[in-house]
Write a structure and sequence with these properties.
321 residues, Rossmann fold, 9-stranded mixed sheet, Gfo/Idh/MocA_Oxidoreductases, 2 domains, globular
């Protein structure tokens, strides 16, 4: 078992602590949180060992799990990597692209493993349809959340939209060509609602909307490609794959047939994959353990997370133009 320690015991940090404590691939050694009073409460309530400093925790483990606010990611990550520790770090990887690139360089220099917590990659509905997504040419995503002051220290793009940016980049095998976006600050000092149009060199276009001031939650994405429409509901963990093929000469009486103006006939059919339930956070943490043990590539690399951050920053920059 890999000895693991968690930096940050806030809402998400406590989830990580619980799952790591239950995992058969890790031995949870303890945690560190800068808020001493709060850290003492967490240690007392859950019986986790509390470390008095970042350095003390790093020295006691094989793997460091960073679940601190984004602004602190870089400094603690550098300490962990320079100590030769494997590193799991929550999204976004860092506050700036330059910091992310420096972490990637250090990771390679020290020969340790790193993975970033883009958890929607492990959403069972998304994992079920990824093999069906072949060459999407139009993508539409909506990620809407009710207002929560906990996430307002960063723009909605880094808080919410980055999930969909990463998901899109993972299936579109082309470089980003152009980004146009608009954002509005309604409650916070930074935009609370944003829309981005991302154009790729291969002609694919992704239209992403994120809001943290909605009356209801929604996390949906739709992928359109030649002869297929694929939808994913990340919140409900459901998916749908609708495909089209040339209609047979004598179709079944219940077949759904479409005919265009030229007289070409297409048959519509459903190719919905089975969705295997999972705990996405536990799976991402345990796949990281597998990558360390087997010396294989991590599922969400620092390089991939840096690309997602670059696009997110381009979206934010577009607000200012």
């Amino acid at each position: 078992m890999l000895k693991v320690g968690v930096l940050g015991a806030g809402h998400l940090g406590k989830i990580h602590l619980r799952l790591l404590n239950e995992s058969e691939k890790y031995e949870l050694i303890g945690f560190y949180d800068a808020n001493e009073k709060y850290a003492e409460e967490v240690a007392s309530e859950f019986n986790y060992k509390r470390f008095k400093s970042v350095k003390e925790l790093i020295n006691a483990v094989d793997v460091v799990d960073i679940v601190t606010p984004t602004l602190s990611h870089f400094n603690v990550a550098v300490q962990a990597i320079e100590a030769g520790k494997h590193l799991f770090i929550e999204k976004p990887i860092t506050n700036t692209v330059e910091e992310a690139e420096e972490l990637t360089r250090l990771l390679q220099e020290k020969g340790v493993k790193g993975q970033v917590g883009h958890v929607e990659r492990f959403n069972p509905a998304f994992q079920a349809v990824v093999p069906k997504i072949e060459n999407p040419m139009f993508i539409e995503a909506h990620r809407l959340a009710e207002f929560n002051p906990r996430g307002t220290d960063v723009p909605v793009v880094l808080d919410l939209m980055i999930h969909d940016i990463d998901a899109v980049l993972s299936v579109v095998k082309s470089k980003v060509k152009k980004v146009n976006a608009s954002g509005v600050s309604v409650i916070s000092d930074t935009p609370d609602i944003a829309n981005a149009r991302i154009e790729f060199e291969n002609g694919c276009v992704a239209n992403l909307t994120a809001s943290r001031i909605s009356l209801k939650q929604m996390r949906k994405a739709r992928f359109f490609q030649r002869d297929a429409y694929i939808s994913v509901d990340f919140l409900e963990k459901k998916c749908e794959v609708v495909k089209m093929k040339n209609a047979p000469q004598e179709p079944d009486e219940f077949a759904m047939i479409l005919q265009n103006a030229e007289g070409d006939k297409k048959q519509i059919y459903f190719d919905n994959p089975e969705v295997s339930p999972n705990n996405a956070i536990l799976e991402e943490l345990e796949t990281f353990a597998d990558a360390i043990i087997n010396n294989t590539k991590t599922r969400v690399t620092f390089e991939e997370a840096t690309e997602a951050l670059k696009v997110a920053k381009a979206v934010i920059k577009s607000f200012e133009q």
